[in-house]
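Are you able to produce any protein sequence you like plus the matching backbone structure tokens because I've never seen that pairing?
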Amino acid sequence: MHSRDSRRLALQRLASLVAVPLFAPACSRSSSPEGDGRSSAPSAQGSAPAAPAQGASAAPAQAAPAAKVKLALNWVPEPEFGGFYAARESGAFAKEGLEVEILGGGAGVPVVQMVAGGQVDFGLSGADEVLTARARGADVLPLFAVFQTSPQAIMTHESRGAKGIADILSSGGTLAIEPGLPYAAYLKKKYGFDKVKVVPYDGGVARFVADKDFSQQCFITAEPIAAKRKGSDPAAFLVASEGFNPYVVVVITRAALWKENPERVRAFIRATREGWRGYLHDPTRANEVMAKLNTSMDAETFVAAAEAQRPLIETPETKEKGLGVMTRERWETLAKQLADLGVLEKAPPIDDLLVAAL
């Protein structure tokens, strides 16, 4: 996560810590997609090969040119996307016959619509946004979930002694949160917001640092790191621990592409899984590449964020079943929760959603 891309006015990321808007319930964040000017394989040459000299044996057949595909991020390059850059830099995409152009995103970039409309082949979204989009008729399917545990959290000051989100919401003070987002609606329904003063989330940590009675929404991999570096005492508690845990950074494609070229989809996911294995083992090279594209985040923060997100990506389940695994039960639970919150009119058939889950 966490629109949650679209989903949540998304929160600033650690980079420049600016606000992060969304689509409805997920983690979308940007204004206009920007290509990073690179792809995972060299472009095929257009000129025809010269004919072999008389008497010379015919040259061996050339390998088929790499298939060009586009991947749209829902935020700027940072560690939550490290595995995709690692797949490109390591040659994992090229090995699968893919030349991948990675498009940077940010607050407001309509990734789901871009995928559904065929402007890009693959995109990144949040599970709650995927369900919401499909309920509205979007032709999208989830393939691979990077974050098994949502990084969405509520951050308060350690000095307040809170042991969890329930304590934060019952102890008064100010809470900066986007109340229209699904996770916020879930917390409000579970605990109520009547004992805190709710204000809009502004995407930064300056007010948090200055006010000991101030709490706010955050990504556990972002704002707490920024606040600590400014000398504050953040204590962050995952919303997932309260029972609302949508998959985040979910790779999606359009159903039409899956039907037309399932092997290309499978190849993309195989390379993605290999890229994430590599990034979790050693994020150095991918971080260096992303740092050149996202100069607002320094090297120390890249390292800290990559380490903070590791347990949210690599879990006992992924060690058993593979990175990116998704379960029918998790999707069913989320669909029911969104229906109970009024985000969806009714929970959709999950089997129809997971036809391409790999």
Notes: The two ends are 20 Å apart (CA to CA). Confidence is low (pLDDT under 50) at residues 1-34, 41-60. DSSP finds 15 helices and eleven strands in the chain.
